[in-house]
Design goal:
single chain, 343 residues, mainly alpha, elongated, disordered C terminus, transcription, nucleic acid binding
Amino acid sequence: MFCTSQSHSLTVSYLIDNLGFTPQSALNTSKRHSFKTPHKADLVIAFFKTHGFSHSQIAAIVAKLPRILSSNPQTILPKFHFLASKGASTDDIVLLSTRNPRFLHLSLKNNIIPTYAMLKTFFQSDEKTLRCIASIPGLFMEARLVKNVKLLADAGVSDSAIGYLLRTRVLVLLSADLRKQVDEIKELGIDPSTVKFAIALQAKKTVPKSLWDAKVNVLKSWGWSKETMSEAFRRNPLCMLSSKDKINEVMKLWVNQLGWDPLALAKIPWLFGYNLERRIIPRAFVLQYLLAKGLRNKSDNLCLPFFIPEDMFLKRFVESFTEDMSQLLKIYHEKKKMFMITA
């Protein structure tokens, strides 16, 4: 008991005197790890200083991982050498170590090297691989990452699709129920060899089930069937990232104000992602005018007018109708100034 109390006291004093800890933070840290002599701690601190770590960065590492003070610096050095051999700068290594010190205790042979090799398979270059690791230092800690990447590869998901997830939504690859999502998306008929499959996974994992169901109910209220929703999702999985209020507002405009078929939106689900006031409303009312005047056929492509850039839209759907151009411009600019839709 005396020895334990003495080691705690020594650790507290050491943290305060050498790393600038407050008495309370030093006491809390000593409860997680303490030492009887400062010899190893001195070596560790000297090691970090030699390799470009500032006083505050060393303190941050110790606060997160107190047992690092009892480590052998020679077990850490090979990890620094490995990263440096891949092109990591001193600042890169310091950042990675400071943000996730547990990396310093991982096995180089059994964890760091194989995980790095797997990531590089998809990023192709050391520069891009290091950038990914720097943005999410905890990747080396995630055994599930390697497992899920293999799961996707075995399911026929292409390297480009897996790479997309690693670059944009790596948390999808850390999911415990990824197989279930993969099977659901396959059932919808989305080709796993395409990047769209990865985007569909992203959408499925980003939206909580309760919110997903709420969006489904909104679409059902406008007459969409399960098949209609599947069609829209296949065309553009990101449509389900729009809020349920946004989906409802687009539907109200489309059906109540314009009198158009709500099922037509399943063929252009990108529309739910566009800005309502600045893009959808002004263009929709221009199209409504053209349809009413017989200047456009109902069977014409509905996607194109909303998809093209503004200058192209004005040239093709406003300025090309010289006799009606002034009225079309008036409609377009008036509607663009609207900030609210009346149901």
